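Reproducibility note. Readers wishing to regenerate the assembly model reported in the main text can use the exact inputs given here. Chain order matters: entities are listed in the order in which they were concatenated for prediction.
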Amino acid sequence: MLFFVTGCAGFIGSNVTDRLLAAGHEVVGFDNLSTGLPLFLEGASRSGHFTFIEGDALHAATLTRAMAGAEFVFHLAANADVRFGTHHPKKDLEQNTIATVNVLEAMRLNRVRRIAYASTGSVYGEAQVFPTPENAPFPVQTSLYAASKISAEAFIEAYCEGFDLQAYIFRFVSILGERYTHGHVFDFYKQLQVHPDYLHVLGNGKQRKSYLYVQDCIDAMLLAIARAPQKINIFNLGTDEYCEVDDSIGWICEHLGVKPERRYQGGERGWIGDNPFIFLDCSAIRSLGWQPKLTIREAVIRTVNYLQHAPAALEART
Amino acid sequence: MLFFVTGCAGFIGSNVTDRLLAAGHEVVGFDNLSTGLPLFLEGASRSGHFTFIEGDALHAATLTRAMAGAEFVFHLAANADVRFGTHHPKKDLEQNTIATVNVLEAMRLNRVRRIAYASTGSVYGEAQVFPTPENAPFPVQTSLYAASKISAEAFIEAYCEGFDLQAYIFRFVSILGERYTHGHVFDFYKQLQVHPDYLHVLGNGKQRKSYLYVQDCIDAMLLAIARAPQKINIFNLGTDEYCEVDDSIGWICEHLGVKPERRYQGGERGWIGDNPFIFLDCSAIRSLGWQPKLTIREAVIRTVNYLQHAPAALEART
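Running the prediction on these inputs yields the following structure tokens for the assembly.
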């Protein structure tokens, strides 16, 4: 099958690309290289079944041409920067919502019927039900990032109804693992490289968050695509556990053999719009036979281990 | 107080403008006149407290300049055409979502803190709870119109969190009354003018819908703005009843004294993405002391009566 993968040079996109190629598929990858790294595509490029097209999903004509012949779209390109949304208020709208509608239009014009979309558990806003199921009460958004993602979900659903697409919408917790290049583990690791004796922590360290290892995440997506039969299939993707930021700091420090003084910024939120508790009910995807292989602790340590041995190009970039 | 009203020449916008002026406020009205009618602003223009600025909310600079000095924004400009969304797939995104983000950006730049937004009960998709409350289960969208409206809601909420705005989001049923210029009563009236002996009906006539008289709708909005204290205030606006399309046809025909043959297109939906049952739980707005003065039947008849005596300019346009 010919897959079209947007954001193919990113953390999740490049891992998805490698897995699709390993399963014997053809992949056309599309990325504007604004945050993705060509380094992550070196393996794919050697496969003989991968084509890279540098382009921006905001350029509808380029996108539409690039998608010709595709049978399935993994739309993983996004502005994944949750924390700094208010620093550039239109970026989430453009890169997450408008880009997604461009992908949908390109699909309509190319008669591609199936799409998998990387959404986020933060679309539940400050959820009132934990673990939070897919049909949780109508959410109120707290960040531009989540607003742009629920908007993209909504347009995907409307295209399914109006133009007979089939969609797989995945609401991720934070994803960890190889090629991870932003987020709290990354921030803490970088800080401890510079000053192992202290650590700045956003919020009070008590924020409760969920994490999932990237290969477990991809296992779940590939399983859903193979088995979920509805026109619109929506799945939370996470582990059946959560941890406090303080737990994660403990694991990271133990692994690195450091004992920094923890300097808390304070407050129950890490930043404006941060959700102090994210814990998703993943029984829907589990009912298809999936379960994660790594615990949150194992995923955190594997990520630190990856960062310790990160390629020079990644080190230079960060 | 100085109100800025987008869509001021439209059905609801012009009625809101008149009510604000009657209450002694200043109004700056903004409209691109794509569907609004200057005719609807004749009274406002005579008031001495109304300024009209012709402009498009998609032109951010024009919008931002026009909003200078405003204290409250009624954002009522929208593509209100639910039925033909799939005929021009990007129109809802542009006119409802992107235009709303432009309004929010203009507010941020002008330091305007309060916004009332006209959303829609169709954001509940095919609701599973009736009457449908504001915190109904996480909806799945069925139309580009509703997708664009829930997207606008989401960005408004994120701006409230990120930039300390205060918002009033109103999810309307279909609104009827003076200056009504599209929808089923309008379509049926126009048909019966041309051929009183038969009537084309989309769907099977059994679709159950709710309606609200425009002045009752405005009463509710003005009350909410005066009394609801939260940062984000979300209200369904409708009557505590619904009717079948067939009921409405009966009232219209009785009023006009015609007995057309009803020619049903068939199917339980009027068009792709149509919701066959809309009935909102309006107990939240009622708890503030509001109740509608007109029943659905009275609102339908008042609308037909308005169309019978519609000004020449409206007749010519349609």
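We highlight two features of this model. The domain at 2-175+211-237 of chain A is CATH 3.40.50.720 (Rossmann fold). The first helix of chain A runs from residue 11 to 22.
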